[in-house]
Amino acid sequence: MYQQMIFVNLATNDIDATKKFFTELGYEINAQFSDESTASVVISDTIVVMLLARSKYAEFTKKEIVDSTKHSEVLIALSAESREKVDELVDRAIAAGGSATGETQDHGFMYGRAFNDLDGHTFEVVWMDPAAVEG
After folding, report:
1. What's the Cα-to-Cα distance from 110 to each of 5, 79, 85, 113, rounded to whole Å?
2. Mean pLDDT within 95-112
3. Is the dihedral of CA 96, 6, 47, 135 positive or negative?
4. Residue 130 pLDDT > 90, yes or no?
5. 55 contact partners, CB below 8 Å, separation of at least 6
6. Whether residue 3 has pLDDT greater than 90
7. Closest-CA residue to 29 (of 41, 12, 47, 20)
8. Between 73 and 16, where is the model more confident?
9. How would residue 9 be classed by pLDDT, with cut points 50, 70 and 90?
10. Crossing angle for the helix pair 15-24 and 83-95, nearest 10 degrees?
11. Strand intervals (E) in the chain
12. Distance from the CA of 55 to the CA of which of 9, 25, 130, 132 falls in 20 to 30 A?
């Protein structure tokens, strides 16, 4: 079966800082699709976050580019394999210069926390008990 991919494109103010931030979270930067105006962050085999300098991002839209530190443009939710992995990723994001956002969500069968990256983009990290997903 064909595995469809998703490429999330986000504007960033500082490519070098963004590359460092996501590398510190444990993600790979795909050098083949990265340059001085683009950071291609590999989240998984099917998910890539393309962080583009604001001038590069502007080449793809006629719309005003939001200031993501003041306005919400998108909430990106990432799954985690355990509650501990949720905490690990969010804690690493904070240590790398990101900030915690929102309240910890603990519903027993589902656990989540969120962080903002250096540009204010919100990433929610969520674990769900596989037994609860199965029904």
Report:
1. 25, 11, 13, 11
2. 96
3. positive
4. no
5. 37
6. no
7. 41
8. 16
9. very high
10. 150
11. 6-12, 28-29, 38-42, 47-53, 75-79, 99-106, 110-116, 122-128
12. 25
Domains in the chain (CATH in brackets) are 1-60 (3.10.180.10), 72-135 (3.10.180.10)
Beta carbons within 8 Å of 100's beta carbon, 6+ residues apart: 90, 94, 113, 114, 115
pLDDT at 98 over 90: yes
- 120 torsion bin: left (phi>0), alpha (psi -120 to 50), beta (else): left
For residue 17, give both structure tokens.
């800082």
| Residue 10, token pair as written in the block | 């986000």
* Mean of per-residue pLDDT scores for the chain: 95
